[in-house]
Design brief:
about 350 residues, alpha+beta, 2 domains, 3-stranded antiparallel beta sheet, 13 helices, 11 strands, about 35% helix, elongated, EC 4.6.1.-, ENDOU, hydrolase activity, RNA binding
């Protein structure tokens, strides 16, 4: 066989070898999508239904065997917890081996349990609103606001620079206030039930310290709101305090206590009443620091721990989607958003969809 014939044979065999590998995960587990191949070998292939036939067999961790409910693991090619349904990166045997996504009935049951356990919630006689007047809150029982979790939240409200795009920094004393607030709300029955639900459903490991770290990451660790911007925001700042984008946009502010205090202090002017629905949910329009927001829904009279418990569960169970459940026999929908350009999971926003 001459040299040309031998080279032709070598090229043909290499081509066949490459073609065979293009249908296999040999040496390719976890690599990014590659159009040069006929099939893929990463967690996204589960979503797009283009995994190679030997993906489960060859890629370590491509199964939910002994992994159901474990937290997100970046070393594994696919995941085995309820958020994987939203992200489309579940292992192929997730449905057959694991519990699957939390049902509306299960979610409604825990939300109702939280509502029933919210002993710090104000009674109807503790506050009065006037939807046709110039002020929304005409009376709030100040004694009710002296409860420990309320005072803990109020201490945090002035710790933030509400301007998006301006670097956020918390002082040592402000971080201590965050720790005190977390310790206070985590000691409530509402948060104990929240932890039990999340742990039993596999959204977090069964550890109170992990739960505390999760709440810290969700709500208080700072992040850049823009992917190429400065560290200027957090879940707590956006949802519970509110933010201003430039001179035209109010963002967030989905907490009744902040609304009441800012209205009382003259920083917020009630504009009009849009929607009110049970249980105790309202969506007013208002001006904040001279900038109008046409609708900002929030619970009325609820405790800080209740609001943060409901939003936290929705953010972990239904990431970047609608969290639907029944509360007090009324349908409730909460939209959640994640900060996609930062690893882990932080609350970008969580609010009533009305």
């Amino acid at each position: 066989m001459d040299v040309h014939a031998r080279l032709s044979l070598v090229f043909m065999l290499c081509g066949l070898f490459k073609e065979g590998l293009s249908d296999s995960c040999i040496g390719r587990c976890g690599e990014g999508a590659n159009k040069a191949y006929n099939c893929q070998c990463n967690s996204a292939c589960v979503r797009y239904n283009d995994c190679c036939s030997d993906y489960d067999a060859l890629c370590p961790g491509a199964t939910c065997s002994r992994r159901c409910g474990q937290s997100h693991d970046t070393t594994k090619p696919c995941q085995c917890n309820a958020p994987c349904v939203t992200y489309g990166d579940c292992c192929s045997d997730y449905q057959s081996l694991c519990q699957g996504q939390t049902t509306v009935d299960a979610l409604s049951a825990v939300m109702q349990d939280l509502w029933n356990s919210d002993t710090n919630r104000l009674s109807d006689s503790d506050y009065t609103i006037n939807t046709t007047g110039s002020r929304l809150f005409t009376y709030v029982n100040q004694t009710a606001l002296n409860k420990t979790t309320f005072q803990g939240l109020i201490c945090l409200l002035d710790n933030y620079n509400i301007r998006v795009g301006q670097t956020e920094q918390l002082t040592t004393s402000e971080l201590a206030e965050v720790d005190d607030f977390l310790n206070t709300i985590l000691a409530t029955a509402v948060m104990t039930k929240t932890f039990n639900f999340l742990a039993e459903s596999g959204y977090i490991t069964n550890s109170t310290s992990v739960f505390r770290d999760t709440m810290m990451e969700l709500w208080f660790n700072l992040y850049p709101r823009s992917s190429n911007g400065t560290t200027d925001s957090s879940g707590f700042e956006h949802v519970m305090v509110g933010e201003l984008k430039g001179t035209k946009t109010v963002s967030g502010l989905h907490n009744w206590i902040q609304f009441y205090l800012e209205e009382k202090n003259g920083n917020l002017q009630y504009a009009s009443f849009l929607i009110r629905k049970e249980p105790n949910i309202i969506a007013p329009a208002f001006f904040w620091h001279g900038i109008k927001k046409t609708k900002s829904p929030f619970f009325l009279g609820t405790s800080p721990e209740f609001d943060m418990a409901v939003y936290s569960i929705c953010c972990l169970v239904y990431r970047d989607s609608l969290c639907k459940f029944t509360l007090q026999n009324q349908a409730v929908s909460i939209q959640t958003w994640d900060i996609v350009h930062k690893s882990g999971y932080q609350v970008a926003s969580a609010y009533h969809k009305m």
